[in-house]
Amino acid sequence: MSSFLSAGLLSLSVFLADCTRPAPSVPNAAAQAAPDTTLRQTVAAPPQVLLPAAERLQVGAAQFDKYLPLLKGKRVGLVVNQTARVGPAFLVDTLLTKGVAVKVIFGPEHGFRGEAADGATIKDGKDARSGLPALSLYGATKKPTPEMLRDIDVLVFDIQDVGARFYTFISTMHYVMEAAAEQNKEVIILDRPNPNGWYVDGPVLEPQFKTFVGMHPIPVVHGLTVGELAQMINGEKWLAGGRQCRLTVIPVAGYTHNTRYQLPVRPSPNLPTAHSVNLYPSLCLFEGTDVSVGRGTDRPFEVIGAPTQPASRPFSFVPRPNPGSTAPPQNGKRCYGQDLAGVGETAFTLAYLLDYYRQSTSKATFFLSDRGFDRLMGNATVREQIIAGKSEAEIRTGWQPALGQYKVLRKKYLLYPDFN
Predict the structure, then answer these.
(1) Domain assignment present for 411
(2) Is 115 in the same domain as 237?
(3) Domain range for 349
(4) Among candidates 65, 109, 102, which has minimal Cα distance to 83?
(5) Of 15, 117, 259, 267, which is most buried with the most CB atoms under 10 A?
(6) Same domain, 282 and 155
(7) The predicted structure's pLDDT at residue 46
(8) Quick check: 318 pLDDT over 80?
């Protein structure tokens, strides 16, 4: 199992390099652990160990010659988290040493250092190392206010995304762009590879389901880097009032949508491994159900289970509070399900969701709320089809027309060679 926290040099070769989407696979029950196996709980946040990215790649933040001239003589606000690094150094520290006039740091969900639990309200404060104000863009204020940007000329966004529509860092980027457009500020996106950028799949979000976990009419797996998505948001005039911001994207040198890329650090507390990032688009849908995805264990997004699943399932675990999830779903309850450690590379699939609904002993409460699940899926149709007993193939048929239209739109904004 590849881990961003392992001491060894690990490859994200688990992500496919060709354009063929493999058939979704569900582990054979015989290969799973014994039913009474309990996961060891994490008692402290492990240290983050940096791992080298592919040598032939240069992320946007590392290409100082491309963007430092754009910052000269300007007052800068950084929208960053723990992934905004060049080598072992935080971008904020590096830019300060290069004489850039950084005035404020904006942090998304999980905070500037990436240590806050999922969904936790992030408070404003001061960065201990630099002494700069550190303002939250997660909680009561998701969009920079005029007061926050009063003394700023340009906003620099550098956050690692994982390529799923409901991963909230792209929603933060949207609001940053929107505030910049309204207040006539520049935006520079320092681009990074998308570890799930080798394919596109899932239903396109319908407008009535727009929330912070889905702000754009894009599929679950959008197949874009944040720089490409920013260009799409701007180009399609998705910002409030149809505005467009003054946008510059610094692309990744040497990247294609087939490139194998090794994430330097975990992108958020509950995505600790390459395997969890790969499974995330499929498993995050369980967050709208009574099935735990392993929050409150040291294997988040690599194990699934619920008290309402048959005790004969091949694996069990008990979620308990830990630094990454202070109030995990199914806290203290034994969850019966699967350890997905043996599952190989897989693209987006409904196979797990359909299986766990079929085997639920409490189908009436499987979906915690209609609206919650539908926000993640981007429509109400899929939930209704699952309840009706439709197969994955039948469900997929319904989202193909909109997905096909999105694929055509996507090509307008690609910065890198594509997989087809």
Answers:
(1) no
(2) yes
(3) 29-45+271-389
(4) 109
(5) 267
(6) no
(7) 31
(8) yes
Q: How far is CA 68 from the centre of its chain?
A: 28
Burial 106-136 (b: 16+ CB within 10 A, else e): bbbbbbbbbebbbebebeeeebeebebebbb
What per-residue confidence (pLDDT) applies to 24?
A: 34
Which is nearest to 102 in space by CA: 163, 152, 137?
152
Same domain membership, residue 230 and residue 86: yes
Taking 90 as the threshold, does the pLDDT of residue 290 lie above it?
yes
pLDDT digits (tens, 9 = 90+) for 232-244: 999 999 999 999 9
Residue 347 CB contacts under 8 Å (≥ 6 apart), including other chains: 16, 21, 22, 24, 199, 201, 221
Q: DSSP letter string over 168-213?
A: THHHHHHHHHHHHHHHT-EEEEE----TTTT--EEEEPPGGG-BTT
Paired tokens of 198: 């080798």
Amino acid in position 40: R
Spatial CA neighbour of 368 closest among 311, 291, 268: 291
Look over the chain and give the mean of its residue pLDDT values, rounded to a whole number: 86
Judgement on whether residues 89 and 213 belong to the same structural domain of the protein: yes
Measured N-to-C along each axis, helices 392-411 and 226-235 cross at an angle, to the nearest 10 degrees, of 80
pLDDT tens digits, residue range 58-99?
999 999 999 999 999 999 999 999 999 999 999 999 999 999
Confidence label for 324 from pLDDT (cuts 50, 70 and 90):
confident
> How many CB atoms neighbour CB 46 within 10 A?
13
Token digits of residue 16: 């496919």
Round to whole Å and give the CA distance between 38 and 27.
19
Record the pTM: 0.86
